[in-house]
Amino acid sequence: MRRLHQFKGGVVLKGHKKDSTLMPTQPARLPASLVLPLKQHIGSAAEPVVAVGDKVLKGQLIARAGDTISAPLHAPSSGTIRAIANHPVPHPSGLPAPCIFIDSDGEERWRPRQHQIFNFAELRPLELREIIRDAGIVGLGGAGFPAWVKLDPEGREVDTLILNGAECEPYITCDEMLLRERALEVLAGLLMMRHAVQAKHCIIAIENNKPKAVRALAEEIRNTGADVEVVEVPTIYPTGSEKQLIQILTGKEVPSGGLPIDIGMVCHNVGTAYAVYRAVELDQPLISRYVTIAGSVAHARNLEVLIGTPLGNLIEQCGGNRQTLQRVIVGGPMMGVAVHTDAVPAIKTTNCVLVESAMHDVPLPSRDAFSLPCIRCGQCADACPINLLPQQLYWYARAQNYDRVQDYHLFDCIECGCCDYVCPSQIPLVSYYRHAKGKIWEQEEEKRRADRARQRHQFHELRLAREKKERAARHKKKRTPVAKGGDDKKAAIEAAMARVRAKKAAQEVPPKNTTDLTPAQQAKIDAVDAERAKARQATETTPADEET
Amino acid sequence: MNLITPPAPHIHSGNRVSSMMTKVILALIPAIIAYTWFFGWGLVINTAIAVTTAVASEALMLRLRRRRLAPFLGDGSAILTGMLLAFSIPPLAPWWITVLGAAFALIVGKHLYGGLGYNPFNPAMVGYVMLLISFPREMTAWMHPYILEQLEIGFTDTLGMIFLGHYPYDLSLDALSSATPLDLVKTELGTNNTVSEIMANNALFGDFAGTGWEWVGNWLLLGGVLLIYQRVITWHIPVAILSTLFVIGSFFFLADPDTYPSPLFHIFGGATLIGAFFIATDPVSASTTPRGRIVYGIGIGVLIYVIRTWGGYPDAVAFAVLLMNMAAPTIDYYTQPRVYGHPGGKA
To answer: Based on C-alpha coordinates, what's the Rg of chain B?
Structure first.
């Protein structure tokens, strides 16, 4: 039996998980139109490889990965590309983003199979990662980081691969139902991931409020004899957060600003393992996932949803009234995003659709609209699983003192919402931290831009200076091979003049009629010259006199 | 479609400032009852005066500062300030003392600094210290604990004394009142008596910390423990104050029991217990980090002992709290907890 550790703080939340686990998971109905945002993951957006009007088959690549950190996109069903345009997506900004629209033809025709793997253990880890990458698999726990990147230890040794089935947010049960219904597939996916990272140990962590999931998994492990440990972890929010889960299981902390791999850990969601299994074994890219529909719906349940299905369709299928919707939360009540419209599609990271109707039949006890000032009671600090001082962060975030707020480690905040949840003054603390983070990023971006501009300017000046110097040097070289010093410029000039005179003297033959003059003639000439010089002097001074 | 899109988290525990304040108020009530049992109706009447004045002052200031009345008046903080102030005023003090103190606490101590959450000093203690410095005679005339055994002083008699200055049985205030045990020890020590002589010669001292006062102390202790249990306050500040007093008190008591009273006398005497559980723990003006709270509590404990023993005032809780209030922001800065994933932990 593994000795478990504790993380500091956290809150005990009412689970509300029973309703959605009563019925087995069912496929969601095929919508007439699927909406596929190009960016459903962390990293750069995918780039479309189809054009409007193209016919696509189920599983066909429709957008390729945009960059190293990106993920390709596949058609969830067969049909026709109707448009590539902006559409509302589940993002906190509420801004529309580019999406590919597919009108489904209802035939669900698959693209031809591309690979057949009989024994994944014979693949090299790199090949396995490529299959996972090409299947468009991202972390299905919520963050959506491309899975193959996290499965690449880059030569570092992986001690433990942790499969996260904690699912600590209220209402969400998709991981639980997946474990109950697809334990063998999840286990197979886990073993594939283990092969990809060559992990020494494997743990599946499940909160102790899901005994059925634990039993299902334990049975499959017994049947298969897999060397995988199932660990029940305490039900306390946010156990499902990667950092807290690692702390519970090992007592170790992920270094600030670092990754679990820095301490030999890799952590993935159970849904991701299932997706890996489907990609490797069945040659199916990530085109569907388990989604919990809960809250003000007649039949809260889990559906296996095609990526791109509008939320409204899911709500309707579960007996929700789309006319009386008040709030639709994508994700859980602690960290989920409230969306502007139920036309938003379910994407790869959508684990739950939490519905609140204006009838308040399933009320979500919300924060008051009016916040009192912070009374520094410190209950937020007691609840913070990272051991921050939320009251101080709030104080400085509000004062827009962004240096101090970083002194208090703003960027270690995981935005779990525990502080917010317990605050007696009902202050939307997390919003303040997000805002402050945004402002700091903005300032840093601005600073980077300014730095770049300054660098450009400095370089420009440097270049000008250099060119000037070079020009000067060139000129000097041309003029004075003799006097390099430059100090005796005068001497150089004299020398040049002398040279010129000498040259002239050498070239010019003196006029013949000036040689062999008698002294009288010479005297006469001199007198005339003197006369001329006098006259010249007079004309030279006159204009100046006239001017005055 | 117009869905509402508030930011996450979308649920709340339902915890409120008003419920925290209510719990503190409830925790104070057993001690008020005990106090009334030993010292008569004075505290009840003073509490009514102080709370009314505090709430009225709060409303006035909110109006002047153009703040919303309902949420702020409903938070219960003005009521609590009034109650704590009344608890620290002698039970027979004339009504205007209480009115002045409560108004000063709320207007100057709280709202001139920005109201709830912004006052650097504990408002009740600001009001108390102002009164103590300005009206030392009225503020030191405490009720003699045996008066009620000898004379029957009812509610209306007490009202008459507080509002009209009419004392029953043709007695004067001086005849009805006495010094507190702390006060007495201080003055008598000055006349070269030993602690044991002082205590033996005076029935005021009860079993260890003063007749009546001991029992009020017990109920304050109980209320305080309930507050910790209810997570309204944390253990750090009270434990730090009381254990500091105990350690320093024991040291001097063991060294010279003739000059220094026992540590229990310090803990149950005067305002130590109400200070440790109800006043120093005022979150707004106290230190807010766990280690900071301990430093803050130790500071208060040391200051209480030092001022009581060698300073000019018999009791020192108010001064100790106000002095440490000043230090709280600095303490907080230097006592930040180690954040997850930062050096010093297990990585």
So the answer is: 21
Long-range contacts of A391-399 (CB under 8 A, 24+ apart): A391/B288, A392/B288, A392/B332, A392/B336, A393/A429, A393/A432, A393/A433, A393/A436, A394/A427, A394/A429, A394/A432, A394/A433, A397/A432, A397/A433, A397/A435, A397/A436, A398/A432
Compare all CA atoms of chain B with the CA of A14 and give the residue at the minimum distance. B13
- The number of CA neighbours under 13 Å toward the Cβ of A180 is 16
Q: Is B283 in contact with A334 (Cβ distance < 8 A)?
A: no
Question: What is the largest distance, in Å, between two alpha-carbon atoms of chain B?
Answer: 85
% chain B with pLDDT above 70: 95
A95 touching B, CB under 8 A?
no
Minimal CA separation from A367 to chain B, in Å = 5
Spatial distance between the Cα atoms of B304 and B290, rounded to a whole number of angstroms = 21
What single string gives the DSSP state of each residue in A125-145?
A: HHHHHHHHHHTT-B-TTTT--
Same structural domain, A181 and A218: yes
Question: What total number of domains does chain A contain?
Answer: 2
CA–CA distance, A483 with A478 (Å, rounded to integer):
11
Q: Do B3 and A335 touch (CB under 8 A)?
A: no
Q: State residue A543's pLDDT score.
A: 44
CA distances from B270 to B36, B210, B299, B306 (A): 16, 9, 18, 14
Q: Which of A87, A91, A159, A253 best tests the B interface by mutation, with the highest count of B CBs <10 A?
A: A253
- B331 interfaces chain A, CB cutoff of 8 Å: no
A341/B72 Cβ within 8 A: no
φ/ψ of A246, rounded to 5, equals -60, -40
- Which residue do the tokens 């029973």 mark? A18
C-alpha dihedral, A489 to A490 to A496 to A499, nearest 10°: -140
- Range(s) of the domain holding residue A412: 367-477
Residues of A in contact with B290 (CB under 8 A): 381
Q: How far apart are CA A268 and CA A199, in angstroms?
A: 13
Q: What CATH number is given to the structural domain containing A133?
A: 3.40.50.11540
Q: Is residue A498, in this structure, part of any structural domain at all?
A: no
pLDDT tens for each residue of B184-212? 777 777 777 777 777 776 666 666 667 77
- Structure ipTM: 0.89
- DSSP string for A387-422: ---HHHHHHHHHTT-HHHHHHTTGGG-----HHHHH
- The secondary structure of A460-477 as a DSSP string is HHHHHHHHHHHHHHHHHH
In this structure, the answer to whether residues A347 and A387 fall within a common structural domain is no
Span between the terminal Cα atoms of chain B, in Å = 49
Spell out the SS3 assignment of B63-124.
HHCCCCHHHHHCCCHHHHHHHHHHHHCCCCCCHHHHHHHHHHHHHHHHHHHCCCCCCCCCHH
CA atoms within 13 A on the CB side of B150: 10
Which residue among A459, A477, A495 closes a domain? A477
Show which of A427, A455, A477 is a domain's final residue. A477
Which regions of chain B are under pLDDT 50? 347
Q: Which of residues 368-427 of A touch B (CB under 8 A)?
A: 368, 370, 372-379, 381-382, 385-389, 391-392, 408-409, 412, 415, 417, 420-426
- Tell me whether residues A338 and B13 touch, CB distance under 8 A: no
- Per the domain annotation, does A40 fall within a domain? yes
Residue A85 shares a structural domain with residue A211: yes
Residue whose C-alpha is closest to residue B266's, from B144, B180, B187: B180
pLDDT the model gives residue B284: 94
How much is the average pLDDT of A42-46? Answer: 92
**Which residues in chain A are closer than 8 Å to B344, comparing Cβ atoms?**
none
Residues A344-357 pLDDT 10s: 999 999 999 999 98
